[in-house]
Amino acid sequence: MDKEAVSDAIEEASVLMELAGENPFRVRAYHNASRIIRAFPGDLDAAAADGSLKSIKGIGPNIESHVRELLKTDEPPFLVELRSRFPRGIIEMLRIPGLGPKKIRVLVKDLNISSVGELEYACMENRLLDLPGFGRKTQENILKGIAGLAAYAGRYLAGSVRERADKIIASLRKVKELRRAEAAGSLRRRKETVKDIDMVASGEPDPIMDAVASHPDVEEVTARGDTKLAARLKSGINMDLRVVPDEVFPYTLQHFTGSREHNIALRARAHARGLKSSEYGLFRGGENIPCSDEADIYRNLGLNYIPPELREDMGEVEAAEKGTLPDLVSRDDLKGVLHIHTVASDGSATLEELVQAAREVGLSYIGIADHSASARYAHGLTPERIREQHALIDRLNGQMEDFLILKGIESDILPDGSLDYPEDVLETFDFVIGSVHSAFTMKEREMTGRICRALENPFLDILGHPTGRLLLTREPYEVDMEEVLASAAENGKAIELNAHPYRLDIDWRLLPQAKKLGIKIPICPDAHSTSDLSYTFSGLWQARKGWLEKKDVLNCLTYAELLDFFRARRHLAGKTR
Predict the structure, then answer these.
(1) In DSSP terms, which residues pair with 410 in a beta bridge?
(2) What sections of 240-377 are H helices per DSSP?
(3) Which of 213, 291, 212 is nearest to 249 (CA)?
(4) Beta-carbon neighbour count of residue 124 at 10 Å?
């Protein structure tokens, strides 16, 4: 297992222990250890080998032993034993949002429920209404959660799938008979969730397919032909590989990248030019037009090259014809990151550690945004602790010439639309992110009004994760995003693209409209550790998918330009109050 998988397994152990009613201190220790491992900046395998894992605060002898097991095998005995205590149906119930181990224990004890199906039936018969800690609203939410499980079945977060696909492609590139290999499909188009992996390769089929079949991440080969292989990975996701002659590779890659709607538009364009487009070539009559890469295909159709992430039939073909495709934002355009949590609230890294990590990846500033006072669950900052943090930031900034720490906060947007600090506290920050963290069940009209009132606050600079969604887990709350975008534009506010792989919120489909309205979009990692800073760069693909250019992305500004942006916006807001 890699570090993230080890962390997930330790967290799973803590949940199963709580479900079994074990000592809460032991449960908490495993939960904390999961976070420590995920944020561990070094090589976990090396730390286990040289014994330094034992010296990490929060990693006791038992947990250290279990980490060693996890690094060696995907099925460690301690986790197998924990899972064996419960029927499969009970473990599946843990996937229902808002239904934790304590509530499941009540359901098992009082209603003898042992599967998602039994739970759904019990809800429909209103059998949860009188259970301690439940009630009608909880019952309704459980039913919504069960419906969500069915809707999300067979889909996966694209970030974790891409890591596995990249590993397989990296191993393929060591095969001497391989010419080219790429992931295709929705994964290559950078959709936020995917249902499978499509892969295209060129070269000699048998050695290439042998390499995939023997890859350690492959659980089972489910089908194999002369040029096609289907497999199931250990993560459960299915993969399809096609191996073609190298001269056919560009056509096959383009075809299987999609989207279906984009390809239909291309085929119609080819037909209008007396051509035929398919996965095997671009034909004029019976003659294939030679294309060495995808750019040649688009050029022969009278189009500029269209990057894979734009291929969604959202006007990209027309823009490619007119030469008006956007110059998409790139990794080198990013100057810094905003929305970072430290040990002062619920992060695991100090300011000094975050500065070092940001500098190592070539950034020139970070914007700290710890949780605010209302977020007691996250050790939110009181005004006194804010003053202490600002003093530390001033001291560190005084020691650096080419790097800046910006003073920010993630302030809760309360149900009435106000922020949870008075103005004399809010004005001490360089920037304020306002986010909804409570009362998600408000009706659309109420939630929209709540957020729009917050956007009218002169001290709010950035609206955080504007729809509150958690991919494959929690649907967005009910909100009219067109009205929110209009309000943000009218009040000169930025809206973050929260790049955490579970959020990717604002949805990329809304970004063209935000861009049209002139709304600046910071790509924010919502980082809780040094390693989370990398979310900024993976989130960049969602910005590109939303047609954003350097000029549209707030953290493509230098720190001097960014400070001027915040100060100018507040000055203008102050005049209009």
Answers:
(1) 371, 433
(2) 249-257, 260-272, 294-300, 316-322, 351-360
(3) 291
(4) 10
